[in-house]
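Re: coenzyme A structure - here you go.
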Amino acid sequence: MAVKITEIEDLKKVDVSKLVEESEAEGYRFLRRLVDQYEDGSNTFNKTGEVLYGVWDHHDQLVAIGGLNRDPYSDKEGVGRLRRFYISANARRQGIGTKLLQQILKDAQGHFSELVVRTDSSAADAFYRANGFSGDLGLPEATHGIVLEREHRKKAE
Ligand SMILES: CC(C)(COP(=O)(O)OP(=O)(O)OC[C@H]1O[C@@H](n2cnc3c(N)ncnc32)[C@H](O)[C@@H]1OP(=O)(O)O)[C@@H](O)C(=O)NCCC(=O)NCCS
């Protein structure tokens, strides 16, 4: 599937209703939270290093969303947190999640030294591990993490 990854500058201008409904039907509440917190201004992904992306297919349908926040749970400097990461069910296992994650990892270089994420899904566990994340880095509210500087060094070696 040919897709276009575009930064979302203003979520209020994007129709996310289908994805929100689909995610809620699957039992995920975090896209509803994304919309609510965007509307009340508590999380608009606009701090330094933060970014929110949408992925559109060739019919201009929004098929995925994913964001990067400064980690609100950690006191440690330089920790970013992947959040609101969701690929529509009929767009899964086609590499879209990987593309979106790679874009976010690229953006995170220079702003963050490590990224964390929290998930309790085994599919997401497999996905993050397939993309270089390891288990718990010992940071709060996180199940997986990746050290960016080390990744960077590996590439440079
Ligand atoms: C987890 C999720 C983001 C994966 O996105 P995706 O676009 O399907 O992932 P990709 O196609 O890039 O998968 C890359 C690799 O990850 C692994 N993987 C992804 N989904 C998997 C699954 N359901 N079971 C096992 N391995 C999986 C595989 O190794 C896969 O490579 P392969 O397809 O060649 O075997 C997607 O399933 C999703 O949005 N799920 C619901 C919401 C969610 O759990 N979000 C994460 C919350 S933190």
